[in-house]
Design a protein that fits this description.
Strand content: 25-35%
CATH superfamily: Molybdopterin cofactor biosynthesis C (MoaC) domain
Radius of gyration: 17 Å
Number of helices: 4
Order of helices and strands: EHHHEEHEE
Length: 152
Protein backbone atom coordinates (compact mmCIF):
# COMPACT_ATOMS: atom_id res chain seq x y z
CA UNK A 1 0.00 0.00 0.00
CA UNK A 2 1.44 3.36 -1.01
CA UNK A 3 1.45 6.18 1.51
CA UNK A 4 0.97 9.83 0.69
CA UNK A 5 4.12 11.65 1.66
CA UNK A 6 2.87 15.09 0.62
CA UNK A 7 -0.38 16.56 -0.56
CA UNK A 8 -1.88 19.93 -1.29
CA UNK A 9 -4.70 20.91 1.06
CA UNK A 10 -8.07 20.87 -0.70
CA UNK A 11 -9.63 24.31 -0.28
CA UNK A 12 -12.48 23.74 -2.76
CA UNK A 13 -15.24 24.05 -0.16
CA UNK A 14 -13.76 27.07 1.64
CA UNK A 15 -15.32 30.47 1.14
CA UNK A 16 -13.44 33.35 -0.46
CA UNK A 17 -12.72 36.01 2.16
CA UNK A 18 -10.61 39.13 2.28
CA UNK A 19 -7.25 38.18 3.73
CA UNK A 20 -4.15 40.01 4.93
CA UNK A 21 -0.75 38.82 6.12
CA UNK A 22 2.11 40.86 7.54
CA UNK A 23 5.58 39.37 7.93
CA UNK A 24 8.70 40.88 9.44
CA UNK A 25 12.39 40.11 9.59
CA UNK A 26 15.70 41.88 9.78
CA UNK A 27 19.16 41.87 8.33
CA UNK A 28 21.96 42.80 10.71
CA UNK A 29 25.09 44.43 9.36
CA UNK A 30 27.99 46.62 10.28
CA UNK A 31 26.90 50.19 11.08
CA UNK A 32 29.26 51.34 8.30
CA UNK A 33 27.33 49.23 5.78
CA UNK A 34 24.06 50.73 6.91
CA UNK A 35 25.54 54.19 6.46
CA UNK A 36 26.64 53.34 2.90
CA UNK A 37 23.08 52.25 2.14
CA UNK A 38 21.68 55.50 3.60
CA UNK A 39 24.06 57.59 1.48
CA UNK A 40 23.40 55.56 -1.67
CA UNK A 41 27.04 54.56 -1.97
CA UNK A 42 26.72 50.81 -2.52
CA UNK A 43 28.40 50.06 -5.85
CA UNK A 44 25.55 47.96 -7.25
CA UNK A 45 23.05 50.83 -6.84
CA UNK A 46 19.95 51.71 -4.83
CA UNK A 47 19.76 48.82 -2.36
CA UNK A 48 16.33 49.47 -0.88
CA UNK A 49 14.57 50.17 -4.17
CA UNK A 50 15.86 46.94 -5.66
CA UNK A 51 15.11 44.94 -2.48
CA UNK A 52 11.57 46.34 -2.47
CA UNK A 53 11.00 45.34 -6.10
CA UNK A 54 12.53 41.89 -5.47
CA UNK A 55 10.27 41.29 -2.46
CA UNK A 56 7.14 42.25 -4.39
CA UNK A 57 8.14 40.09 -7.35
CA UNK A 58 8.93 37.15 -5.06
CA UNK A 59 5.53 37.34 -3.34
CA UNK A 60 3.92 36.98 -6.76
CA UNK A 61 6.02 33.87 -7.46
CA UNK A 62 5.42 32.10 -4.15
CA UNK A 63 3.56 29.05 -5.55
CA UNK A 64 6.50 28.50 -7.94
CA UNK A 65 8.97 28.55 -5.03
CA UNK A 66 7.09 26.66 -2.29
CA UNK A 67 5.79 23.39 -3.77
CA UNK A 68 2.45 23.02 -1.97
CA UNK A 69 1.35 26.67 -1.93
CA UNK A 70 -1.86 27.47 -3.76
CA UNK A 71 -1.65 30.09 -6.50
CA UNK A 72 -3.44 33.13 -5.06
CA UNK A 73 -4.67 36.36 -6.56
CA UNK A 74 -2.77 39.07 -4.74
CA UNK A 75 -4.51 42.44 -4.74
CA UNK A 76 -1.63 44.27 -3.07
CA UNK A 77 1.91 43.63 -1.83
CA UNK A 78 4.04 46.17 0.00
CA UNK A 79 7.60 45.89 1.24
CA UNK A 80 8.86 48.56 3.63
CA UNK A 81 12.13 49.15 5.46
CA UNK A 82 12.98 50.66 8.82
CA UNK A 83 16.59 51.83 9.32
CA UNK A 84 17.04 52.83 12.98
CA UNK A 85 19.21 55.91 13.49
CA UNK A 86 21.77 54.21 15.73
CA UNK A 87 21.10 50.65 14.66
CA UNK A 88 23.03 47.91 12.96
CA UNK A 89 20.10 46.39 11.07
CA UNK A 90 17.32 46.99 8.59
CA UNK A 91 13.86 45.79 9.59
CA UNK A 92 11.79 44.53 6.68
CA UNK A 93 7.98 44.45 6.75
CA UNK A 94 5.95 42.91 3.96
CA UNK A 95 2.17 42.99 3.64
CA UNK A 96 0.26 40.73 1.27
CA UNK A 97 -3.47 41.20 0.63
CA UNK A 98 -6.07 39.47 -1.45
CA UNK A 99 -9.35 37.66 -1.61
CA UNK A 100 -9.13 33.91 -1.56
CA UNK A 101 -9.85 30.55 0.01
CA UNK A 102 -6.56 30.38 1.89
CA UNK A 103 -4.18 32.83 3.53
CA UNK A 104 -1.37 34.99 2.19
CA UNK A 105 1.15 34.22 4.93
CA UNK A 106 3.65 32.52 2.64
CA UNK A 107 3.58 35.42 0.17
CA UNK A 108 4.42 37.91 2.91
CA UNK A 109 7.15 35.67 4.35
CA UNK A 110 8.71 35.08 0.93
CA UNK A 111 8.69 38.84 0.26
CA UNK A 112 10.64 39.48 3.49
CA UNK A 113 13.11 36.66 2.82
CA UNK A 114 13.87 37.71 -0.75
CA UNK A 115 14.03 41.37 0.23
CA UNK A 116 16.65 40.48 2.85
CA UNK A 117 18.58 38.25 0.45
CA UNK A 118 18.63 41.05 -2.11
CA UNK A 119 20.08 43.44 0.47
CA UNK A 120 22.69 40.81 1.30
CA UNK A 121 23.58 40.31 -2.36
CA UNK A 122 23.97 44.02 -3.01
CA UNK A 123 26.06 44.66 0.10
CA UNK A 124 28.21 41.52 0.29
CA UNK A 125 31.21 43.20 -1.38
CA UNK A 126 31.54 45.46 1.68
CA UNK A 127 30.11 43.26 4.45
CA UNK A 128 30.09 39.46 4.28
CA UNK A 129 29.18 39.22 7.98
CA UNK A 130 25.52 40.22 7.51
CA UNK A 131 22.96 37.99 9.22
CA UNK A 132 19.33 37.53 8.21
CA UNK A 133 17.19 36.73 11.24
CA UNK A 134 13.79 36.67 12.83
CA UNK A 135 11.63 36.18 9.76
CA UNK A 136 8.15 35.59 11.13
CA UNK A 137 4.44 36.11 10.63
CA UNK A 138 3.52 39.25 12.57
CA UNK A 139 -0.21 39.36 11.78
CA UNK A 140 -2.85 37.70 9.68
CA UNK A 141 -6.55 38.19 9.24
CA UNK A 142 -9.36 36.62 7.27
CA UNK A 143 -10.68 33.15 6.89
CA UNK A 144 -12.17 30.81 9.45
CA UNK A 145 -9.30 31.17 11.94
CA UNK A 146 -9.73 34.96 12.12
CA UNK A 147 -7.05 37.33 13.39
CA UNK A 148 -3.59 36.25 14.57
CA UNK A 149 -1.10 38.71 16.06
CA UNK A 150 2.38 37.50 17.03
CA UNK A 151 3.54 38.21 20.55
CA UNK A 152 7.16 38.90 19.57
Amino acid sequence: MATKRVHMIDVTQKQDTERLAIAKGKIKMKPETLELIRRGEITKGDVLTLAQAAGIMAAKETPHLIPLCHPLLLTNVTVEFNLPEDGDFIEITATAKGIGKTGFEMEALVAVAIGALTIYDMCKPVDKSMVIEGIHLAKKSGGKSGVYIARN
